[in-house]
């Protein structure tokens, strides 16, 4: 992916169900580096591990800042079962990172906040449009095609996927 805008009106070239997993943390005390810095370092390792494994289920990632205190990651998966399997796999990066993060959260007594949300979005229940944008979000994960291939209006694109 490049930061160069793709000219025109584009839409994500996604097919089938999409699982959207949002995960993030809020740094409540910047000085409590030991509470939050290890988690900041762990997420790229997990993404790298998933990206190397064909069939992991992860199809794309977007790292975002939600202001000076909020860091979050939007992940796109092709299967909720693969997401859940990765989260619980004892031989993958996630389990030890999650256990260590939980210990630091307990010890830190509010130094850092954590959240995640998972959405299973059935085919026909999502659409997208990107105008003069670099590939972003679901379009970055699945690639983009000209809007006309799926319909000029949001309602047309939703109907085309159903």
How are the secondary structure elements laid out?
Elements lengths: L5 E7 L5 E10 L5 H20 L5 E8 L4 E8 L2 H9 L5 H15 L3 E10 L8 E4 L3 H6 L1 E3 L7 H8 L1
Antiparallel strand pairs: 1-6, 1-7, 2-4, 2-5, 3-4
Task: Describe what this molecule looks like in 3D.
Helices cover 36% and strands 31% of the residues. With 162 residues, it is α+β, with helices and mostly antiparallel strands. Strands 3-4-2-5 form a 4-stranded antiparallel β-sheet. The model has no long low-confidence stretch (mean pLDDT 92). The chain contains 5 helices and 7 strands, in the order E-E-H-E-E-H-H-E-E-H-E-H. A hairpin with a 4-residue loop joins strand 3 and strand 4. Helix 1 packs antiparallel against helix 3.
Summarize the structure.
The chain is α+β, with helices and mostly antiparallel strands. The chain has helices at residues 33-52, 80-88, 94-108, 137-142, 154-161, and strands at residues 6-12, 18-27, 58-65, 70-77, 112-121, 130-133, 144-146.
């Amino acid at each position: 992916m490049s930061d160069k805008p793709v000219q025109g009106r584009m839409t994500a070239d996604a097919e089938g169900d999409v699982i959207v997993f949002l995960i993030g943390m809020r740094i409540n005390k910047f000085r409590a580096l030991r509470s939050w810095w290890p988690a900041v370092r762990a997420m790229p390792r997990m993404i790298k591990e998933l990206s190397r494994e064909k069939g992991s289920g992860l199809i794309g990632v977007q790292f975002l800042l939600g202001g000076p205190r909020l860091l979050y990651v939007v992940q796109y998966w092709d299967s909720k079962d693969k997401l859940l399997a990765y989260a619980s796999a004892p031989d993958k990066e996630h389990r030890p990172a999650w256990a260590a993060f939980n210990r630091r959260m307990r010890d830190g007594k509010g130094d850092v906040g954590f959240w995640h949300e998972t959405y299973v979005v059935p085919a026909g229940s999502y659409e997208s449009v990107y105008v003069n944008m670099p590939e972003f979000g679901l379009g970055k994960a699945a690639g983009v095609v000209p809007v006309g291939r799926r319909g000029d209006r949001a309602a047309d694109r939703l109907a085309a996927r159903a």
